[in-house]
Structure formats: C-alpha cells, structure tokens
Amino acid sequence: MMAGYIVRRVFSCRNLFRLPNSALHVCANSPIKCFVSDDTTRIFTLPETPNFIVESRRTFAKGRKSKDEGGVGTVEVPPNVGPNIKATAASQMEAAVAALSAELSKLRTGRASAGMLDHIIVETGGVKMALNRVALVSVLDPKTLSVNPYDPETLKQLENAIVSSPLGLNPKTDGDRLIAVIPPLTKEHMQAMNKVVTKSCEDTRQSIRRSRQKAMDAIKKLNSVLPKDDIKRLEKEVEDLTKKFIKTAEDTCKAKEKEITQG
C-alpha cells in the first residue's frame, strides 16, 4: 500500500509537469525501483507518458521572451518600425510646408493670383463659405482678376466680402462678374508683407524641427533593440529630411519676397 502511494505521488500529473521534457521521454516504459524497506525492493514500470503532457508544456512555454544563444532575453521589433518613424516625420514636415504655402498665398502682392482670394469668407443664405466655393476666380492679366459667381444672386455678397478683406481691393461689377484690379504696393506695404513672410518662414522652420525632435526621440527608444548602425542610419535619414524641408520652406519664402518686391 505504502509503495503504491509513493509511486502515485512521485508520478502524479502535477509532478510530471515539473519534469523536463527530456526526462519525460526517457522515463517512458522505464523500470523504476522503489525501496519499501531496508531489505525489500519493488520494481515498477512507468506507463508511457501521454503526449498531452509534453504538448501542454510546449504550450505553456509560448509567450516567454525569446533568448539568444547566450541566454540573454531579446525583444522582437517589427521590421518596418524605422520606415514608419521616418514616414511620420516626412508627413508632418510636408504638412508644415503646405500650411506655409497656403498662408503666403493670402498675402497680396502687386501681381494678380487666382489663389489670393481663396481665404476670403463669403456669407450667403445664412451660410459662410470660402470664396472659391462660391465663385470661379481667374487671372485676366498680371494686374487684373475676374470673379465669376456660380449663382449670379450672390454677386453683391461677393463684392462686400472682397472689399471687407485686408487685401485693399475695390472690385467693380461687369455684368454677372466682378473685375478686381490689383493696385501697386506701396513701400510701407512691401515692408509689412516681407515681415509677415519672414515670420511665417521661421514658424515653419520651428514646426519642422519639432517634427525632427519627435522622430529622434522615437529612435532613441530603439537603442536597446536595434543595432547601432541602424540607429545612426535612421538618425541621418531624419536629419536629411529636416534639411530638405527647411530648404523647401526657405525657397518658398524667398520666391514670395521676390514677388512682393517686384510688384
């Protein structure tokens, strides 16, 4: 009785789970000696180990941190984490440059531009909409704009909105359209516009640099999981993006300043 109890305890399901897989395979159908007393020995044979025990051990092992050959725990990193960081930074920088272009298009120069009226808000029928949603603006010549409303009934509202804008335009009615002559800029107006351009350019540079810093911070978090060469390569690519978009912003502002100065 005692011998049977001991064997059942030793090879209980709970204890079997504690054995290594190799031991479970070796012990299958192996004779086991059990010393019942000082002069009595009984031999028992362990039944074949059920497969579910080994399989369960394998299942429980899943989810553990992987280890390299030296036994050091490692964390798997998605292969696209670097490109994603760079793509996010590029998208943010591109958005900053696009916002700069939209802001500069609002500035009046001595040259007619169809986009210079886009930011004007027109209220018609109790609804406020951007002018380019209400009318088609076209350039007749370098000094003249034509504003053709989609609904002739909104002609008066269009005229009031343009006159009220800070552009200093005074359009005249010409049938079912408005004709806006772009007056030459005064010296004071040129200086004021150039200051706005300079400030807008600096704001855009700061925005691009903030995007760069966010990307660099994200890359630093990968120091423990990516090789140093990969980290340096990512940092260089982000730096190159930063220089590229800052140059684009500066070139855009220089072109606007030239347009203002030349009238």
Automatic annotation (TrEMBL):
Q: Which InterPro entries match?
A: Ribosome_recyc_fac, Ribosome_recyc_fac_dom, RRF_sf
Which one GO biological process term can you cite for this protein?
translation
The record's GO molecular-function terms, alphabetically, read: ribosomal large subunit binding
One Pfam assignment: RRF
The record's Gene3D superfamilies line, in alphabetical order, gives: 3.30.1360.40, Ribosome-recycling factor (1.10.132.20)
**Keyword Coiled coil applies:** no
State whether keyword Metal-binding applies: no
- So which domain of life are we looking at? Eukaryota
- SUPFAM superfamilies, from UniProt? Ribosome recycling factor, RRF
In this chain the Ribosome recycling factor domain maps to 101-260
Instruction: Give GO cellular component annotations, separated by semicolons.
Output: mitochondrion
Q: What does this protein do?
A: Responsible for the release of ribosomes from messenger RNA at the termination of chloroplastic protein biosynthesis.
Which family does the similarity line name?
Belongs to the RRF family.
Stated name of the protein: Ribosome-recycling factor, chloroplastic
Q: Which organism is it from?
A: Cicer arietinum
The gene from which this protein is expressed is LOC101493271
